[in-house]
C-alpha cells in the first residue's frame, strides 16, 4: 500500500513554500528601504491559491492571438501573478514606497504564519510515521 503525500499533507506544503517566498520578497523590501524609486512589493495569497487550483484543474494558462500582428508568446514565461506592487500610504520624496515599520511588521507576521504552517506539516509527518509504525 503506497502513501499519496499530496493527499496526506494537503495544502500545508504549498503554504510553507508560499511563506518562504513571501519572506524573500519582504526582506528585499526592507533591504531597499533607502533605495530611490524602489517600489515595495508583496505576494497575494489569494492569487497563489487560485493559480494552484488552475494548475490542478485545467493546466497551464495559454495566450491567444486575436490579431495577426500580435507577437507570438510561445516559450514566454508569465510573471508571477501573485507578485504585486503595494499601494503606499505615502511615498517618500525620492519616490520610494517602502515603509520600514510596515515591512517589519509584515515580515514578523509572515514568520509567525510560516512557523504555524511548519508546525502543522510537522504534525502531519509525525502522524504518518505513527501510522507506518502501527501505533
Secondary-structure map:
Blueprint: H1 5-9, H2 12-31, E1 41-43, H3 45-57, E2 83-85, H4 100-133
Antiparallel strand pairs: 1-2
Helix pairs in contact: 2-4
In terms of DSSP E residues, the strand content is under 5%
Unreliable residue stretches? none
Q: For the report, how would you describe the main beta sheet?
A: 2 strands, antiparallel
The structural class is mainly alpha
Widest sheet: strand order? 1-2
SSE series = HHEHEH
Q: Could you give the count of β-strands?
A: 2
Distance between the termini: 17 Å
Count, helices: 4
Helicity, in percent?
40-55%
Estimate nothing, just give the exact number of structural domains. Answer: 1
Q: Nearest-angstrom radius of gyration?
A: 20 Å
* Overall average residue pLDDT: 80
Describe this structure in words.
This protein has 135 residues and is mainly α. It has four helices and two strands; from the N terminus they run ααβαβα. It has helices spanning 5-9, 12-31, 45-57, 100-133, and strands spanning 41-43, 83-85. Strands 1-2 form a two-stranded antiparallel sheet. α2 (12-31) runs antiparallel to α4 (100-133).
Amino acid at each position: 500500500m503506497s502513501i499519496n503525500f499530496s493527499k496526506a499533507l494537503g495544502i500545508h506544503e504549498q503554504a510553507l513554500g508560499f511563506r518562504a517566498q513571501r519572506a524573500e520578497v519582504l526582506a528585499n523590501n526592507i533591504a531597499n528601504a533607502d533605495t530611490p524609486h524602489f517600489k515595495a512589493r508583496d505576494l497575494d495569497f489569494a492569487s497563489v491559491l487560485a493559480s494552484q487550483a488552475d494548475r490542478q484543474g485545467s493546466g497551464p494558462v495559454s495566450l491567444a492571438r486575436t490579431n495577426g500582428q500580435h507577437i507570438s508568446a510561445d516559450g514566454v514565461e508569465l510573471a508571477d501573478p501573485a507578485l504585486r506592487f503595494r499601494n503606499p500610504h505615502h511615498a517618500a520624496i525620492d519616490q520610494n514606497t517602502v515603509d520600514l515599520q510596515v515591512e517589519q511588521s509584515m515580515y514578523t507576521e509572515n514568520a509567525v504564519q510560516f512557523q504555524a504552517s511548519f508546525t502543522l506539516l510537522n504534525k502531519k509527518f509525525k502522524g504518518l510515521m505513527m501510522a507506518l509504525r502501527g501505533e
